[in-house]
Every structure is written in C-alpha cells, then in structure tokens.
Amino acid sequence: MSLRRILFLAPAASVTHIFPRLKDAGYEVGLAENLKGASAFIRKSGPSVIFSRPQLPGYKVDDLLAVSQDDATFPPVIVFSDKGSVEEAERLLNLGAQDYWLEPLVYEKVVAAIPAGRKTIPAPPSTTLGGRKPQMPETEKGPNIIGSNPVMRRVLALAKQVAPSRATVLISGESGTGKEMFSKFLHAHSDRANGPFVAVNCAALPEHLLESELFGHEKGAFTGAINRKLGKFELAHGGTILLDEISEMDLGLQAKLLRVLQESELDRVGGTETVKVDVRVLATTNRNLEDWVKEGKFRQDLYFRLNVIPLRLPALRERGDDVLALARFFVNLYVREYGLSSLEFSQDALDWLASYEWPGNVRELQNLMERATLLAGRGPISKSHFLLDPDSWPLFGEEEEHGADVSASGGMADPAGQVAGAATAQEYSAAGVDGGSALFAQGVIPLHEMERIMILKGLEQTSGNRTQAAEMLGISVRTLRNKLNEYRGEGLDIP
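Given the sequence above, the corresponding structure tokens read:
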C-alpha cells in the first residue's frame, strides 16, 4: 500500500479544489463516482486512505465499509458530507468509518489524516499543468540551498549555527524567497531531524478551524466533532512545527499560542485535560512584525517569544550573481523533467536576468525558467522566450501561416509553411503521451501543439479521468471533449 496515494469518492466539484496542492506535495490522487471505479483504483494503486461522500447516484459508502470490514489490509475510510447529521455519523462510524467530517475539505486537514509514516511535504499552489512541480534538491541533511552571495552565506551560516538548538526562529522575507525551505533546512540540521516536520499555513484557515488544527479537539466540542482529533502540535511531538505566515493569525488565537510556547502544554478545544508537548517552533512571515505590533495587529509578547532567533532572507534582487546560478539550476532541472537537450542562455537573456528586479523572488524565477525551457527548443534561451511582451511572442502565429523565418525561436519554416521541429499527429501517436516531451528537443513547438501535449499529459496524470483533467487544465469538460474529438480526427489514438 502506498503512503502517497489518496482516493476520493465524490463529485469532482467538491474535492478538486485541493488537488493541485496534493499533487504538488507528491501525492497521487484518484477520483471515482461509483464503487466500480473506486475498486479499479484500489486494485491498481493501493491508496493509503479513502475519502468518501455518504452516497452518490447508485452508490452508498455502506458498501465500501462492508468490504473494509472483511479485509484487514483495506485502507481507512473517512466520510465527509455537505450536510451531515449526528445520527448518520454514528451509524457510519459503527460500520467502520475512521472519521466523519463536514465539508468543505481543507488541504491541511486531508494531509494530516493520512496514516503515519508519510513524509509531510506542504507546498505552494501549483503553476504547472499536468503534474508535480519539480522541487529543489534535497540531500541527506535536508534541502540543498543554492547561493554564494555574501548576504546569503551569512544567512546560511546563522541557520547552521542555530539549527541544533531548540530556540524558536522567526524567518522573515518577501514572498517567494524560500522561507519554508529554510525551515526544512533548520529541521534537517537539528537533533530532531528524525522526528516529524509539520507545517501549518496560518493564512489558509479561519480562526475557529485553525485553533482545532493546531491544538486538536475532543468529541462533541462543536458541531461535526464526532471523534477526538489530535492537533498539529501533538502530531509534531518530538519534532518541529512550522507556523507559516504567522502574522495572519487572529489576536485571540495568538494568546493561546503564546501559552503553548511558554508552558509547552495545550488544551484541546472542548477538552478538560492539559496535554504536554515537546515541539521546536519555527515561524515565517512576509510582513514587518514590528510595524504590526505598533499597529496593534500582532501581540508584542508573542513577537518577542517568536523572535528569539531572527532570520531574514534577502530578496532575490539583493543576491547578485545568485540569480544566474539559480536560473541555470532551474533550467537544468526542467531539462531533465521534460526530457530535453541541454540549454544555454544567450547574452540578451543573461543581461535581462541580471537587471530585472524580481518582485516574485525565487518562485518567480523558477516559473519563468520553466516557461523558457519549454519554449526554447534546442536553444539558446533568449530574452524573447520569457514572453515578457505578448505583442512580440516568438511563436508561430502569422509566421507559420505565411512561411516566414522564425529566427528568434531557433526554428525555421520551409516554403510549404511546415515548421522544423513541430510534431505531427502521427508522431504523437507513434511516440505516445510520454514521447511528447522529447519532441521539444526538435525545435520550438507552436502553441496548438503545446496545448495538445498539456492536454494529453493531463489525461495521463489523471488516469484518463476527463472531469479531473479538465479541472487541472482550467478548461471545461465540454472543451476537453471537443479537443479530444479533434485529435481523434487527426489520427491520434485517444482512449
């Protein structure tokens, strides 16, 4: 049974909003709307947990729970409902459901419910169609942080020095500078490296839900609290907890958090017993907390408690030649990811990279390098491949129609108007979906061919589920269906 696979038995609209984050975190996600489809996914993929609506047209979760009772290796089943009732919850729990939730589903809660033994890897929202976004490399001692600029070396040296301690660290910096990566680095270089690393996005949850996620709750604490639930602090016992975007936490909850930090103990929501916890706390913020304290938006005592070790990450524009080093790293990363030939930068691209201000920091650079890698073909990567000005995109629009040269892209059009390196339907059919990425190496691909690759890749990632693929691609199911019919007409073998 895989610890990285999750099955949802539910209408697509009720669950697909969390799919991109789950996929970015490395989970394989399945979606079924009946017992037959669920059984096929279970046999093929062996999910570690199943989330199911109580019933769908032609399906009741009772049938699934009956199967689970006869098989000790069957994955746990968590039922979630858009309405819900105490009577239904008690009935299904008696039938073998592990838990009963009320919608909407929240990413952090779903991940926390996955059986122990997994490696928790929260992630930012995806910007990649069709699959997991490549991650920065990790060594046996955590993330490999790239950068040789003096300002970055000083930050890294401080991080290494304080990592072994239990001191609370407040990591500040603009969005996209790598705050979560540094928190993983601190954990990996501490004496708690073998313990859990649990991250909580304080900006993603409302106050009442965040309190339950952090501290847990007892059965009956509020409507829908059917069972006792351990909070993230208890799940992080013996390890590290990351409070991401701590500045967004409500003032009332800040007071409760302060007590946990000072006393190393907590009270579950609705509980009467105090629970001791042994957790190293890291926090991140993209705001100036000193200003927020002055404005009354953040508690001063909590700020002092968090700011034992201040770790400020520099903006990318402050890091000099690190920009070019990171750009080359990301290009090499995506070259491997998409099966392309190695790529170099033209001088105009290098000049632009060095002069740009990078408001989105390293995250923006990574996204831009993925785009340029896909569009450059055999290279070199030029400034035009960054698609900075939509009016000068070096793709094949009118040039393809009139047979003009496309010198900026590295591709050439012959007198018949065919573009060197553009894949035909027959080539795709012969190569299969996985072969599509190798075709990038032949030259720059027109937008309609790029669209085809992304659609086929989306179908591959969702095991042919059109509803889920359309959601991932940001198009309607009707549009997807029309595109697939178009590809069939061109000779592609579409299942």
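The longest strand covers residues 280-285. Try to locate this feature in the token string yourself.
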